[in-house]
Write a structure and sequence with these properties.
This protein is 51% helix and 18% strand. By secondary structure, the chain is α+β, with helices and mostly antiparallel strands. It is elongated and about 105 Å long.
Length: 410
């Protein structure tokens, strides 16, 4: 067994109460706090990014395809659905789904309220998992490819403004130049995604029912769409999918990622990125200063022992090994405690939403936490490596300690 390891173990883990043991415990606590803050900061940052991205892409897809020609407001520009393109796009690696859709502006009217709305019309085979996750009341509408359905889903915000609930019917008006069309849809589901910027304006309807509204040519109405919504299995492959989709379409189509459609949402996350990086750097600096300070205290406290070991023939390098091992014990203890506290707190937050947020400001009602195991391993290895390197700074003074001078500290 190495002399340094043996002595460091005896000093750090002795059952008897000693100054060295007390300092070691305090140092472990300080390092664990720094590691805990770093893990939580990373996890919350990644959680925010994932939640925001999942919600925005839940509304718009990872990639949105539409025509370049001008349109009124936020309505879709119509074109005929190209089944050959849809089939080819589905075969692109990473593409999970592709659905045609139409956006159509309308006016909802209840007994006492008028409210503008943008209906997003989707087909019968649409993936409603996003809305199922955020469904508050009612059910997901059941659409078919053989009959028009006037069942719609409203956001909780819009339902509150209109003072309606599931099962109620509303008057819905569509204005096209001088023509006004009225429908009476039934509210079957109410959702709340937390993204008020979207919840205030969008509702979900059946594609077939809106296709009949946007064109007067009923023979071709059911072939019309205003865009394609593409979902990618791994959002990091979005640019790759865009590049593969582009040659399948002519120059009249815009192929936009969700970041390009809603840049403000993601710019906000970039600001959060900078704040978290500052916190992480500060916590690493605190941990480094802590480990340097503690080792200096331990070295000063053990100057008589250092002098005795040198007088017995031990080299400075071997004595340095004692304090390297002590520094390593402190770091490993801090990592263990910090990980336990951080991951335990994160688990409680994810399960029970102990810390809430203002959904109007943060787009979610509770602090999120997402930390892949690879990130956790890198944080721990990085912290261990960086802090351990700095243990060489304080132990360098051991080489300057002379056995004759160490008697003064006895």
């Amino acid at each position: 067994m190495q002399l340094g390891y043996y002595i460091a173990k005896k000093l750090s883990f002795s059952k008897q109460q000693s100054f060295t043991k007390s300092i070691t415990v305090l140092a472990i606590a300080a390092v664990s706090i720094s590691i805990c803050v770093v893990i939580l900061a990373f996890g919350i940052l990644l959680g925010f990014k994932k939640e925001i991205r999942d919600k925005v892409s839940g509304y718009a897809g990872d990639i949105s395809i539409s025509r370049y020609q001008l349109a009124d407001g936020s309505e879709s520009n119509l074109f005929s659905v190209d089944s050959a393109f849809v089939a080819a796009a589905k075969n692109i690696p990473g593409v999970e789904t592709i659905f045609p859709f139409i956006r159509k502006q309308g006016i909802l009217k209840s007994d006492s309220t008028l409210e503008g709305i943008v209906l997003k019309a989707v087909p019968a085979n649409y993936d409603f998992s996003f809305y199922q996750k955020h469904l508050k009341r009612g059910k997901i509408p059941h659409y078919t490819d053989t009959a028009d359905s006037y069942h719609i889903m409203l956001s909780e915000y819009t339902a509150g403004i209109m003072d309606v609930d599931t099962g109620d019917k509303l008057n819905l008006y569509f204005l096209d130049n001088t023509d006004v069309r009225r429908r009476k849809p039934k509210v079957v589901g109410i959702f709340n995604t937390g993204l008020q910027e979207f919840d205030k304006y969008f509702a979900i309807a059946h594609l077939r029912s809106i296709q009949r509204i946007v064109t007067s040519d009923y023979k071709t109405a059911y072939t019309k769409a205003g865009g394609y919504e593409v979902r990618i299995a791994d959002y990091t492959k979005t640019a790759y999918a865009q590049g593969k989709i582009s040659p399948l379409l002519d120059y009249n189509y815009a192929i936009s990622s969700v970041e390009e459609l809603y840049p403000v949402m993601f710019q906000w996350l970039d600001i959060v990125d900078n704040n978290v990086i500052v916190i992480i750097v500060l916590m690493f600096i605190v941990a480094i200063i802590n480990i340097i300070t503690v080792l200096l205290i331990l070295i000063i406290d053990r100057i008589p022992m250092i002098g005795l070991l040198k007088s017995m023939g031990s080299s400075s390098r071997k004595i340095m090994g004692i304090f390297h091992w002590q520094g390593l014990f402190i770091l490993l203890g801090g990592l263990l405690v910090g990980n336990a506290v951080a991951l335990g707190g994160a688990y409680l937050q994810v399960e029970y939403n102990l810390i809430g947020l203002d959904a109007d400001t943060y787009y979610m009602d509770a602090v999120p936490f997402t930390l892949p195991s690879a990130y956790l391993v890198l944080i721990n290895l990085g912290a261990l490596a960086v802090c351990f390197v700095f243990t060489y700074i304080p132990v360098k003074i051991i080489s300057s300690i002379q056995p004759s001078e160490s008697v003064k500290f006895s």
